[in-house]
Write a structure and sequence with these properties.
Elements lengths: L14 E3 L7 H8 L6 E4 L16 H4 L22 H14 L5 E6 L2 H6 L3 H15 L3 E6 L2 H8 L4 H15 L5 E6 L5 H11 L3 E5 L2 E3 L14 E4 L5 H13 L7 E2 L6 H9 L4 E4 L1 H24 L5 H4 L4 H4 L3 H17 L11 H5 L5 E4 L2 E4 L8 H5 L9 H11 L7
Parallel strand pairs: 1-2, 1-10, 2-3, 3-4, 4-5, 5-6, 9-10
Antiparallel strand pairs: 7-8, 11-12
Helix pairs in contact: 1-3, 3-5, 5-7, 7-8, 8-9, 9-10, 10-11, 14-17
The protein binds flavin mononucleotide (FMN) and iron/sulfur cluster (SF4) (2 copies).
The site of one iron/sulfur cluster has 14 residues, from helix 15.
Length: 414
Amino acid sequence: MADLYVKELNMINPFVIASSPATQGAANVLKSAAMGPGAIVLRNFGHGAGGGSYIGPDSKAMYSGGMCIHSHAVGRQIPDNISTLEQYCEEVALIKKNLDQDIRLWVSVGHYSDILKGGDWEKNWANQAKELKRAGADAVELHFNTPGVAVAKDRIFDYHQLLRHSIQVIKKAVPDMPIMAKLAMESCDVLTSIRVAEAAGAFAAGPTARWKGFYFDLDWRTTEARPGSGYGGTQATPLVCYAIAEARTSGLTIPLYGGGGVFSYEQAARIIMAGSQAVQLGALACSGGVEAGKKAIDGLNRFMDENGYKDMDSLRGDALKLFQMPGEVAAARQERLGDAYRLAEVSNQCIGCRRCVNVCWHQGIRMNGKAAEKTSQCIGCGYCFQVCPTGALKVEKERILSSVFEENHIRRGE
Ligand SMILES: Cc1cc2nc3c(=O)[nH]c(=O)nc-3n(C[C@H](O)[C@H](O)[C@H](O)COP(=O)(O)O)c2cc1C
Ligand code: SF4
Ligand code: SF4
């Protein structure tokens, strides 16, 4: 079995069950612990249940049916029974008493609505951090994934200034308490956010891809859709991966725990391979439950075993080779595949459906009676190869692409 221990965050594995209904209150945190994650974030208190989750247009397909309920249901949201800091700290103490010692407990502080409400929010946040530390929390997580949304909407604060200031305020209150800066990717430059978080003294940063969204079925009277600030889903993962890879290639070393669209081990692996120490499980935990969380953790372990990644150091950042692929290698791959497309002839599997002719914008293929034939005009763009239903137009794409990597000694897991 691969070693999933994340030394930078002292976590038994890279999975963080993110602040959500699955972590609201001690009972839910302890239930989530059955997934066996590296850390769990107790959801913030006193702000209602939050806007819920808008997973995205393709959520049903993402879950490949059956596995879960839609977490963007119109049904009643989980009520927030905790309204005072004292009660919140009691929950923390209760969790610490019953939680497997190997699982880290992070606690969410700093809800944007405190700022919008006015009052002495800085003092409150500093005080919360102190009390939560006393109650036994392993780290505080700054709830700045949503402020990006709200703050930008109201144009009240500059996100980066607010981020820096808030980290400094909490750091001053609890200098030796790790601060996890959970960051919005909406409406602000996330690379700058990570830089600011690192410079201000955050222990780790969690770039999180969730946006305001408005999407609805065309038969909208009968569906659950509503606008929300939690648009995520697997379509968000590439954005998280880019933010992380960009941070790493810019030389930032702060531990990261990216989040957005992790519905299986594959997306988790991608976020880590882009350079993140850990990954958040949000909607997966909420709507897939304990079994889905366990499955993702087991899946990552299996993937690492099967692909020769013995520990997190070997997995983390392995895809930066692709992100930073030298221009000449990228060009060579395009060139070689293009040549293969250009030179390939139509085989006798052609059924004369004309799809290739339809998508060719270069007169590179034409019908000759009932079968297609290539012409000398073909530039090798490959469009027709994507649409041919029979394999009459085919090249050994994977072999051709990997041949360039092999020649340039670009291998996985080294
Ligand atoms: C139903 C739901 C409620 C959420 N509520 C909060 C919240 O109160 N505070 C917070 O920091 N993040 C909240 N989140 C965001 C998650 O903590 C996490 O960052 C995000 O869901 C990760 O993206 P994913 O759902 O695509 O995995 C919520 C997510 C969901 C699904
Ligand atoms: S590879 Fe491109 S240019 Fe050549 S025949 Fe196909 S679609 Fe036309
Ligand atoms: S798409 Fe394929 S099967 Fe259809 S006409 Fe072109 S080569 Fe023949």
